[in-house]
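Lab manual, section 2.4: Encoding a predicted structure.

Procedure: take the sequence of the chain (155 residues), apply the prediction step described in section 2.3, and record the output as C-alpha cells. A sample record is shown.
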Amino acid sequence: MDFRETRTDKILEYLCRIILAGTLVFLIAYWSRIPDQIPTHYNAAGEIDSWGGKGMIWFIVIMSWVMYLGITFVEKYPEIWNTGVKITKKNAEKVYRLLKYLICTSKLIMVAVFCSLAVFSALASPLPAWWTAVYFTLLIGNAVFWLVRIIIARK
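Recorded output:
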C-alpha cells in the first residue's frame, strides 16, 4: 500500500532531522569543551554508572542515525508490518495509516531520547531524576494511544 505523505508525516520527519542535525552541530561546536571522560551509561535514576573516553559520544550519535534510517526504511514497506489485527479491504487504509503514525511518533521519541543522551554525555551531566519516567511514559503512552486507535479502526 502506497501512502501519500501527509502534513503530519512531514512535520514528524522534519522534527527528527532537526533533532539529529542539531545534536551533530552542538557536538561539533562544543567538542573542545567536552571532557576527556564522559558518561557512557546511566542507571534508571539517571545517575552515571559508567565512564568512557570522549570519542564514545560518536557511538550514541551513530546509533541515533542508524535507528532513524532503519525505522525510516521500515516505514516505506507496510506489507512487512505486524498489524496485530486482521487487515481487510475495508480497514486496510485506516489501519496502515494509524500504524504509520505509531512508527513515526515512536521514531521521533527514540531520536529525541538518544540525542538527549548524547548531549547529557557531552556535558558530563547526570540525567534529571524525571528523565527515565518521562521517556517510558512517552514511549508506552504513545504505543497504547495508537494501538487502541488501531483496534477500534479494524472494524
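Check your result against the sample. The beta strands are 37-42, 48-53.
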